[in-house]
Write a structure and sequence with these properties.
The protein is mainly alpha-helical and about 100 residues long. It has a two-stranded parallel sheet. The protein has a two-stranded antiparallel ribbon with strand order 3-4. Strand 3 and strand 4 form a beta hairpin. The chain is globular, with a radius of gyration of 13 Å. The C terminus is likely disordered. The protein binds a DNA duplex (13 and 13 nucleotides) through helix 2, helix 3 and strand 2.
DNA sequence: TATATGACGACGA
DNA sequence: ATCGTCGCCATAT
């Protein structure tokens, strides 16, 4: 049985659209559980296939791709028109993803 | 009960 | 820009 936290997280990820890239922290915030980014990673790692979620549209707060799935994720993202460079989402202009520190906003 | 771990994030060096 | 440390917290051992 899924917890409230897990249900909310899954719901938020399910609604991500093509070309929309968000961070774990963004999802935690949208789910109503700010600061619980690790829970987002845990849910994805454990049940991506179960819920059939667009896991590739989730990156960390610095734009880094998912460890161990970088090649596939980069391919999936580029197929949606998202630029990926050296294991990173290239710019801060996709979806709600925003880097924490931008030297040149 | 106690530690270790991790698809994270903020910060400082 | 990159790396290490620390806070966080559910699971695993």
């Amino acid at each position: 049985m899924a917890s409230e936290l897990e249900r909310r997280i899954v719901e938020v990820i399910r609604f991500l659209r093509e070309g929309e890239v968000v961070s774990y922290g963004d999802i935690a915030n949208d789910a109503g559980f700010p600061g619980r980014s690790r829970a987002v990673g845990r849910v994805l790692a454990a049940s991506t296939d179960v819920y059939d979620l667009p896991w590739w549209r989730v990156v960390n707060s610095t734009g880094r791709l998912v460890p161990g799935h970088e090649a596939e994720q980069a391919q999936l993202l580029r197929a949606e028109g998202v630029s990926v460079d050296n294991g990173r989402v290239k710019a801060a202009m996709y979806g709600r993803f925003r880097p924490v520190r931008r030297s040149n906003p």
